[in-house]
């Protein structure tokens, strides 16, 4: 690595170095991301079903689960055959205490 000298010839560079500047930019970006997205909350799933992690055991139908306030997602587990699951929880999104119904369906493709 070569050393750069400033115009005065004393061997010292003036101002911020590149590393110090980039570390400041990285720290600022991390702080901004935390302010925008917040911190993660712990998952509160209680029932593992395929790749769905649900608050309750499966009950009812998909139509019942997906009416009103609900959350639907899908997931996959790889391997020689892929397991694809559709998952649904009915109720408020603020944790398992407010979920009134869970539903899932998994199929190999």
Commentary on this structure:
This protein is of the alpha+beta class and 109 residues long. It has a domain of 62 residues. 22% of the residues lie in helices and 30% in strands. The strands form two sheets. Strands 3-4-5 form a three-stranded antiparallel sheet. Strand 1 and strand 2 form a beta hairpin. The longest helix has 20 residues. The protein is flat and about 65 Å long. The termini are far apart. 12% of the residues are buried. About 6% of the residues have low confidence.
Q: How would you sum up this structure in a few lines?
A:
The chain is of the alpha+beta class and 109 residues long. Helices cover 22% and strands 30% of the residues. Strands 3-4-5 form a three-stranded antiparallel β-sheet. The chain has a two-stranded antiparallel sheet with strand order 1-2.
Q: What's the layout of helices and strands?
A:
Elements: H1 18-37, E1 47-49, E2 52-54, H2 62-65, E3 70-77, E4 83-91, E5 99-108
Antiparallel strand pairs: 1-2, 3-4, 4-5
Provide tags for this entry.
single chain; 109 residues; alpha+beta; two-stranded antiparallel sheet; 5 strands; 30% strand; flat
């Amino acid at each position: 690595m070569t050393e750069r000298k400033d115009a005065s010839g004393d061997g010292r560079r003036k101002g911020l170095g590149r590393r110090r500047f980039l570390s400041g930019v990285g720290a600022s970006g991390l702080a901004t991301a935390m302010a925008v997205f917040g911190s993660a909350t712990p998952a509160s799933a209680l029932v593992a079903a395929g790749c769905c992690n649900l608050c309750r055991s499966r009950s009812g139908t998909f139509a019942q689960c997906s009416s009103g306030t609900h959350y639907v997602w899908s997931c996959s587990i790889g391997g020689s055959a892929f397991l694809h699951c559709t998952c649904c929880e009915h109720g408020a999104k603020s944790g398992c205490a407010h979920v009134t119904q869970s539903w899932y369906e998994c199929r190999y493709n």
